[in-house]
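Supplementary Text 2. Reproducibility record for the structural model of the 722-residue chain.

All settings were left at their defaults, and a single model was retained for analysis rather than an ensemble. We include the record here because the model underlies the residue-level annotations in Supplementary Table 4.
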Amino acid sequence: MPTPLYDYRKYWAECFGTAPELPTSRAEMEALGWDSCDIIIVTGDAYVDHPSFGMAVIGRVLEAQGFRVGILSQPAWDSAEPFKALGKPNLFFGVAAGNMDSMINRYTADRKRRNDDAYTPGNAGNKRPDRAVIVYSQRCREAYRDVPLVIGSIEASLRRIAHYDYWSEKIRRSILLDSRADLLLYGNAERAIVDVAHRLAGGESIHQIRDLRGTAFVRKRVPDDWRVVDSTSIDVVGPITAPINPYADTRTESCATTGDNTSAPEEQAVRIMDVTVAEDSRPEVIRIPAYEQVKDDSALYAHASRILHKETNPHNARPLVQAHGDRDVWLNPPPLPLSTEELDWVFELPYTRLPHTSYGDARIPAYEMIRHSVNIMRGCFGGCTFCSITEHEGRIIQNRSEDSIIREVEAIRDTSPAFTGVISDLGGPTANMWRLACKSKEIEARCRKLSCVFPGICKNLNTDQTPLISLYRRARDVEGVKKVLIASGLRYDLAVEEPEYVKELVSHHVGGYLKIAPEHTEDGPLSKMMKPGMGSYDRFKAMFEKYSKEAGKEQYLIPYFIAAHPGTTDKDMMNLALWLKRNKFRADQVQTFYPSPMASATAMYHSGKNPLKRITRDSEAVNTVRGLSQRRLHKAFLRYHDPENWPLLRKALKKMGRADLIGNGREHLIPPRQPPKRHAVVESDGGHFATQHNGLPRNPSRKRPSRNARGGSSRRSPQRGR
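Retained model, structure tokens:
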């Protein structure tokens, strides 16, 4: 077992005590009595000393180990001089892009530059560079060439191997090579960063640190004491199975006997490898296709992606190695989850929970969104193919204790000058996975499934949400707390397994609107997203309306949908638009699929193959929406009510042979003519939709929800991963 985070012997600099704020300038260092920093963290975000911001968590964790930690927040990157502001670090530079990937932060799904940045004071744009980890790393090297360089954050984590880059439309090398970093930390990195700091402080070279979980590095060759296994010998070629219907009421078999949407021979092969003692007793490392191979062969890229996702369970994952020219990028297995005691310790470090005082009264939107929220867990076992949370934080849920969560609620009440009695969220990557886990540690240790809830809820998954109900009730009973809202994404397929949970949620924790994410209504895209069918949504909606009525509350569901996801056809989007109209929904902001690095859906987008199954030359083809015009069409279907989209939709519907959907009746999707410009916001629909907006009555006496309450245009909320 690893040493608990709080049990390390502290570094000698602990004598300086706890800093009110981690210093961002020489003057602040001198005020603390420091002549130098042991570690300097470079980040693309404003410095907010709050446990939802990665630089604050890593900084406070290292400070608690006795190290002097400085922060270079959003430094100018046109020269190395700003990177010398705090002097030369004694141990290493830690470089992070911030809570979000810098490219996703700076560009829309249509590759247009954003003018704002929610992680910057004043919401100002252009305060960080494209590919921030690479640029910051280059400046650190220019400033102090001999200082060890450690990179992390979600940007580095999702680029640890050769990856498809949506913005350049090509395969890029591992970020390790382009940044020239000595070590990459992926996932939640507290355990690894603490170990690195203590080992460097003990005189060990950064180039000797090769055994830490959750790290990646470059080496010349595989050492002789490792046995190399070709990835194609694990992912055995076999027959192709039929697509699974997400609408079916299924319950998956034991994780010990089935691994995913593949046929039994593959899983037999994996199981045999797991339990059979090989003649060669050396530990295994899996070699995935080289950068030069995946760059030129999209099928091999999809295969490499599939293998990487199969090797993400920290209890059975093996190291991976990928050649880049004459060098190998080596990935150690993922980090072991933090214990509840360790996670409590991390979240109860002495954060001010405020932006750095140097920002004055400047607004930082991402901070304002989460300043009165409480993160109760990490990880997600949903496995949605378009999402990076599972890839970054893992499938095994890491839980805080109920007492620790309540202490944070009380701290917000007692210390936040802006607190009005409302806790804006008790959640995490998913609202209702707290304390949910596999019923068997043995099965969990062997499982290689990508999701515990697709195509149905695994029978080995504990879905008891009684502890969460208890937590909600205790939180809302805290003196001085008027309301506890649940704003994190909700897995409604899990919620309906516990009607009492839905009743508690709807009766006490919805602020008029509850956001959930069906993402689509049709079989094709849902099966590629690994999302449940609309049957679960309908069950949850019925419960939501029933308990809202019983509580005497007027409340509404706000469903999210994705346009242009791999596996989606024009017909799928048309059917989704018809569903929206039948259910009286008008989406203000919609999300177009964004191919983020390393996601399974991105592998589908690039390769046209389905990495949820074995990849062969003739394996299942996935329809991909690549052209800008088709992506715009799919987005237009989601906003069928916007007159600006009607010309495009009329043309598409006629081409699809569905001109019958053009007309002025209730059964029609869009009208045949454009309205006068002065009436361009009203659809000619016999008045049926004139009083509806997102399914919500337009009541002049009722305050409209804020943009965040209704959902942003790209759903860019703070990513809770480090």
